[in-house]
Fold this sequence. Notes:
Radius of gyration: 18 Å
Number of domains: 2
Number of helices: 9
CATH topology of the largest domain: Rossmann fold
Helix content: 40-55%
Strand order of the largest sheet: 2-1-3-4-5
Structural class: alpha/beta
CATH class of the largest domain: Alpha Beta
CATH architecture of the largest domain: 3-Layer(aba) Sandwich
Distance between the termini: 36 Å
CATH superfamily of the largest domain: Resolvase, N-terminal catalytic domain
Order of helices and strands: EHEHEHEEHHHHHH
Amino acid sequence: MSKTILYARVSTAEQNASHQRAQAEAVGFVIDEVVTDEGVSGVATKLAERPQGRRLFDMLRRGDTLVVRWVDRLGRNYQDVTDTIRHFLRQGVIVRTVINNMTFDGATTDPVQQAIRDALIAFMAATAQAQAEATKEAQRAGIADAKAHPSKPLTYRGRKPSWTRVQLDAVLAMLDQGAGASAISKETGLTRQAVLRIRADRAGAERAAELWGIRA
Length: 216
């Protein structure tokens, strides 16, 4: 009997697998099992090298569905993500995402459909890596600014953000995918105004996350 398995990677107390499961179920997924890697850096560790990530390669069977919040959960960079997805597709596993409800199915034998599918996988993986690199660059800029002006975080940091690191990452990823503020608000649980503020000043949002210690 086929299963639907949610893979969640959480790296801090700001994140939790229950939240990711709730997001998946809110958009219609029926989850049979959750596999979670905790305290693992997504940009430093391949999926196959993560303790629970390795389990996926052993437990997933033909006809099973692997659900992830977004493709960046499945690898540390473009090459790792594309290799992982294509491996599972060759095994007959269906890969689906919570954000934008994307479905990748290896069952198709039509070469044109395969080419379209593979091109979409490559595009999404490249977008995920570009977003990760942009986020890291904004974080570095925020850290450098805080070090150059050490009095700022000690005297006034502004109002504490209402969002978590998970929500900020989700907003930034969906903005890069062209999603509108209303759709992002519905997906992340943030107000539309909060989404608009992040969109208007991404670097500022990253700096606020650094100053308040809201880390991934």
